[in-house]
Amino acid sequence: MSERRLNEQxxxxxxxxxxxxxxxxLRDHGVDVIVADVSPSAQQLAIDYGAGRAPAEGDxxxxxxxxxxxxxxxxxxxxxxxxxxxxxxxxxxxxxLGPLEQLRAMGADLSRYLGTHPMAGRERGGxxxxxxxxxxxxxxxxxxxxDITYKRAAAIEDMILDLGAVPxxxxxxTHDEAVALVSHAPQVVASxxxxxxxDGPDAALGLTGQxxxxxxxxxxxxxxxxVQILGANASPVAEVLRGLRDDxxxxxxxxxxxxxxxxxxxxxEAIAVGNTGVARIPGKHGQDRRFAQLVVMVxxxxxxxxxxxxxxxxxxxxxxxxxxxxxxxxQIGLAELAVLPEVEHKLVSELEARGWRxxxxxx
Length: 363
Fold this sequence. Notes:
It catalyses: prephenate + NAD(+) = 3-(4-hydroxyphenyl)pyruvate + CO2 + NADH. By secondary structure, the chain is α/β, with parallel strands linked by helices.
């Protein structure tokens, strides 16, 4: 157990994925964690998984984490502030400006409240999907406001650091605009693209490759939760989607008349600007850099992927990223390895010498 920073009893209200994961992570550091939920069965399930203990008489939490759906976040935060007048309260909702404004309108004690948002999650929800390491290396936004000092909110940052996350300071408004671009609008795009597959012919779906899986990976998310998230952050998300709609209209017009003057340029520029945008996505250790990609064919039997990764290590090459895809109708997997461009030739040569089949290489 590593040395912990947080020295408070922690009460977590809400036992879903985030609440239970926070509980698991803090328990690993020896923190006394209380789990509360309006659903007794959900609360007991989180406790059974080790996220904390049931509330008891005499509890005196110094830090309260509200991990409930966005549409009830402000109400629950206000209730916790009133019930525990000496506690610092935070929430982990994916929108920040709305709850802050609602709490201000309620007259809540904002000198003890600081909203946060961990940029982490999974396609599955609930305590059964919780992980103590869910937040490792992930950004965790602290949405500062003028009614609280960061010194007063130090316990929140201690918790974030104990969970292995990276604290990022933003205003509530800036946070909501940012997540509209990098999280909320992408959810809508992924879901709409996945919806095109409902009536897609089986023959087409049989050709599915990694590109489609990448685009639609998050489309399996909970509709009820996303109705709340998108409703709470409607204006910034709509602004992003309007820009996307304009770009789509331009490409559609070009595709309707591909031989018209300027059509091919419109299409080319749309793809090229996408190249520029994707290059800005931070990669490993937050670096904005591109890696060489090679696709290795891996027999679909036990131990083969582990053997490949072991031999990459023996060659002395560090993997920057890894994705695995199965080839439809074949007993083979395709392992896409991302490495630094300067070691790509060495790795290809060494793997081929060891009998591995290289399906593709791209820089």
